[in-house]
Amino acid sequence: MQYILRAPESVHCTINLPASKSISNRALVINALAQDFDGVIPPENLSHCDDTDVMVAALQKMPYVINIKAAGTAMRFMTAFLSSRNGEHILTGTERMTQRPIHVLVDALRVLGAEIDYVTNEGYPPLRVRGKKMSGGEIEIAGNVSSQYISALLMIGPVMENGLTLHLTGNIISRPYIDLTICTMKEFGAEVEWEDGNTIVVKAKPYESRKFTIENDWSASSYWYEIMALMGSSQLTPQLSTFNSQPNSVILPGLMDASRQGDSAVRYIYSMLGVKTEFAEKTQLKPNTVTLSCHHRGLPHFDFDFINQPDLAQTVVVTTALLGIPFRFTGLQTLRIKETDRITALKTEMAKLGYELDDSEEGVLSWDGKRKEVDIEKVVIDTYEDHRMAMAFAPACIMFPGLKINNPEVVTKSYPHYWDDLKKAGFEIVNSL
Questions:
Q1: Cβ atoms within 10 Å of 86's Cβ, excluding its own
Q2: Positive or negative torsion for Cα 323, 295, 232, 285
Q3: What band does 339 get if pLDDT is binned at 50, 70 and 90?
């Protein structure tokens, strides 16, 4: 499948974003860990994306072989969950999933009493997990590994015999995602606290089933911030100069001002790129509703550390380059082991649009502000089975009318109705294959 995209002259719409995938997957694991107790109440407003769907299927059916497909979060969370519950299972996924390392989590779980074997290659899925009541206790784990490893360990802490004391060593990355896990655990009655800046203590106290509503996804909002930034730019190409003839606005219900989602930082990042965020308290809209509007704000250079918001990097890279702003973005080391090598994918696809990015420093991506002319009619953006590549590059059609994107269906991983929402906003989408 290949889409050809064209943007409207202006954008005025209300978009109902998907529920937070990050919170949904945490709530599902915690809810399942509470099933040994009476009165389990399933979470409300659960995400319906691929990553959450595979979690729901696995937890409801619990087959011997559990295939979580391309869902990295599900692989990590289910590895810990299965280790803590009686029974034996094979946990596997896509070919790409079998290339994504998991030894740091497996090693930690083994120290805590888990029985896990590698089925094929040492350090990588598939895994054979023999679940049982785990002893728990104290353990050290590097703070610069995926926060999903840390979250997976934390969530099973309350059901361990001795609870869990987790000492994080070195620099801690994606701390907001760890805080999100702790906050969600507390919502279900867990006793978990940061003892100091590097130690988290989880008491051996069972979860309590409670009513819990999942908020909408700040990560998904980032593409609408990108659209607003590009629509509001004064650096539009001449053929698009009419776009500024009307003010643009997007209304996004279901986003909390005090959200624990790390990607809620998108509103601060895009404030520097000319997008204003206004919460419902200052408008006539319902609570937890955001209105985006665009105001030109030129930056001579943009530096930002994505250590706590790596999932926003692709969107901000595309936005900043298309606005003509040189940048240097750090904290991107985990992008190499995502659904694809996102650093390489970004370099390759941005080069097609004339932007040569530099990744010569580890965990750093930069652009010097110089762009080569390209024949946009020959450009086709590849998505690498990565939902965020498709969604981050789609708004580029504002600057490059007729932009083509291959395999656009990958968005179902986190935002299944993304293309329908773009159509609702006035974008023209044609399937050319």
A1: 9
A2: positive
A3: confident
Cα–Cα separations (whole angstroms), residue 33 to 94, 163, 201, 229: 26, 14, 18, 42
What are phi and psi for residue 119, nearest 5 degrees?
-80, -40
Query: What is the token pair recorded at 389?
Result: 């590549």
Q: Kindly report, residue by residue over 185-224, the tens digit of the pLDDT.
A: 999 999 999 999 899 999 999 998 888 999 999 999 999 9
Q: Give the pTM.
A: 0.85
Whole-angstrom Cα distance, residue 7 to residue 401?
7
Distances (CA, A) of 249 to 222, 286, 322, 329, 428: 14, 17, 20, 28, 18
- Cβ(39)–Cβ(430) under 8 Å? no
Q: Where are the beta strands (DSSP E) in 297-368?
A: 302-305, 327-330, 365-367
- Known active-site residue 107: no
State the Cα torsion 58-173-327-388 to the nearest 10°: 0
CA dihedral 151, 154, 80, 260 (to 10 degrees): -30
Q: Which of 311, 382, 386, 421 is catalytic?
A: 311
Report pLDDT digits (tens) over 252-284: 999 999 899 999 999 999 999 999 999 986 556
